[in-house]
Automatic annotation (TrEMBL):
Pfam families: LZ_Tnp_IS66. Residues 32-59 form a coiled coil. Residues 49-128 form the Transposase TnpC homeodomain domain. The keyword Coiled coil applies. Keywords: Coiled coil. This is Helix-turn-helix domain of transposase IS66 family protein. Residues 104-116 have a biased composition (Basic and acidic residues). Residues 79-116 are annotated as: Disordered.
Length: 245
C-alpha cells in the first residue's frame, strides 16, 4: 500500500515537471518567433541604409550628371506666402524692363557665334564605334552614347569621322561598383592633334607639312619641342608631332 502511494506521488511529480517543461518550451518557441521577426526587420533596415549610402556616394563622388543639381535662385519655395496681385504685376514689369546682357569680349567687342560646325555639313560620314575594354557585361547596361565629329582627309576627298562611344551604367542602381570600377563606364576619346579641334590627324598632317618637317628635324637633333607659353598647346603639339613623324 505504501509502495503504491509512493509510486503515485512520483508519477504526479513527473507529470507536473513535464507540464512545466511543455510550458517553458512554448514560451521559448514564442520568444524565438519574436526574435526571428526582429532579425528580419533589422535585415530590411540594413538593406535600406546600404541603398541610401550607395545613393549618397553617387551624389557626392559620382559623375557631374549624377550629382545633385544646383538650386535655381528664381525657383519659388512651396511654403512661401503667395504674393498679392499688384506685387506680381510689379515683378513682371521689372522683369520685362530689365535688359538681357549680351556676351562681350574683354576688348569691348561682341562675341560672335562659332560657325566651324557648318564646315562638316554635306560631307560623307564614316561612323566608328569604340567600346570600353574589360567590362562585366552581366552587371552593366547601355544608358546612352556620345558622338564626336572630326574632319578627315583622304586623297581626293574630305569626309567626317564620327566617333560613337556607348555609355554603360550599372543595372542595379542600389549596388556599389567593384574595386577599380566606376558607376558609369565609357571608352576614352581618341587623341586629337589640337585640343578641341575639328581636324583629324590625316587632315592636319596633310595641311601642315612644313611644321612637321621642322619638328622632325628638332626631334632628330634630340632637342625636343621648344618651350611654349601655353602648356596645353605644347602637350597637344607633342602628340601631333609624335603621330606624324
Amino acid at each position: 500500500m505504501i509502495q503504491q502511494d509512493t509510486m503515485e506521488q512520483i508519477i504526479r511529480s513527473q507529470q507536473e515537471q513535464i507540464a512545466d517543461l511543455l510550458k517553458t518550451n512554448r514560451s521559448l518557441v514564442e520568444s524565438n518567433g519574436k526574435l526571428l521577426e526582429q532579425t528580419d526587420a533589422l535585415q530590411r533596415k540594413i538593406q535600406e541604409l546600404l541603398s541610401q549610402i550607395a545613393w549618397l556616394n553617387r551624389q557626392l563622388f559620382g559623375r557631374r550628371s549624377d550629382k545633385l543639381a544646383a538650386l535655381d535662385s528664381n525657383q519659388l519655395s512651396l511654403f512661401d506666402p503667395v504674393p498679392a496681385t499688384g506685387q506680381n504685376e510689379n515683378i513682371r514689369e521689372e522683369d520685362s524692363s530689365a535688359a538681357v546682357p549680351s556676351k562681350v569680349k574683354p576688348d569691348g567687342k561682341k562675341k560672335e557665334s562659332r560657325r566651324n560646325r557648318e564646315l562638316l555639313e554635306g560631307l560623307p560620314v564614316v561612323e566608328v564605334v569604340i567600346e570600353p575594354d574589360r567590362m562585366d557585361w552581366d552587371r552593366y547596361r547601355r544608358i546612352g552614347e556620345e558622338h564626336t565629329r572630326m574632319l578627315e582627309f583622304e586623297p581626293g576627298r574630305l569626309y567626317v569621322k564620327e566617333t560613337v562611344r556607348p555609355k554603360y551604367g550599372l543595372k542595379d542602381n542600389l549596388s556599389l561598383p567593384g574595386e577599380g570600377e566606376c558607376g558609369v563606364i565609357i571608352a576614352p576619346l581618341p587623341p586629337s592633334p589640337v585640343y578641341k579641334c575639328l581636324v583629324g590627324f590625316h587632315h592636319a598632317g596633310r595641311n601642315a607639312p612644313a611644321e612637321i618637317r621642322i619638328s622632325r628635324s628638332i626631334l632628330q637633333a634630340g632637342q625636343g619641342v621648344p618651350p611654349s607659353g601655353c602648356p596645353s598647346f605644347r602637350k597637344h603639339t607633342d602628340r601631333l608631332v609624335q603621330a606624324c613623324v
